[in-house]
Write a structure and sequence with these properties.
Layout: E1 3-5, E2 11-15, E3 18-20, H1 23-37, E4 42-46, E5 49-53, E6 56-58, E7 61-63, E8 66-69, E9 72-76, E10 79-85, H2 91-103, E11 108-112
Parallel strand pairs: 10-11
Antiparallel strand pairs: 1-2, 2-3, 4-9, 5-8, 6-7, 9-10
Length: 113
């Protein structure tokens, strides 16, 4: 594992050639890989991206779309789960979490601490 520092003092950690923003996120990836191998989950993907609000123009100025990028997404017992590994929640994340839940009621959002 190779390590460096990222935002909020978390240590970047590399596993399987993938650089994760924190050691805890890398650990959770390893846990999910074991669940995948055991057949408990399927379709594991990293960094799933969701559009929360479309971009638009106002008075000739373009406002970019608002997106949320989770850490992991997979299928478990027939339904989709998105996970986000958090040391702590920022105000920005709390707003994006609410928008995500409103727009994606069929997806379970799990916050891993």
């Amino acid at each position: 594992m190779r390590r460096g520092y990222s935002k909020y003092g978390a240590r970047k950690t590399e596993v399987d050639g993938i650089t994760f923003d924190s050691m805890r996120e890398a650990e959770r990836y390893c846990e999910l890989k074991m669940l995948l191998k055991a057949g408990k989950i399927s379709g594991l993907t990293l960094q799933p991206k969701f559009r929360l609000q479309e971009g638009f123009k106002v008075n000739g100025k373009t406002e970019r779309a608002i997106t949320y990028i989770g850490d992991f997404m997979y299928e478990e017992n027939g339904h989709r789960v998105v996970e986000d590994v958090k040391g702590f929640e920022t105000k920005e994340f709390r707003i994006k979490r609410k928008l995500f839940l409103y727009r994606n009621r069929d997806i379970e959002l799990r916050i891993i601490r």
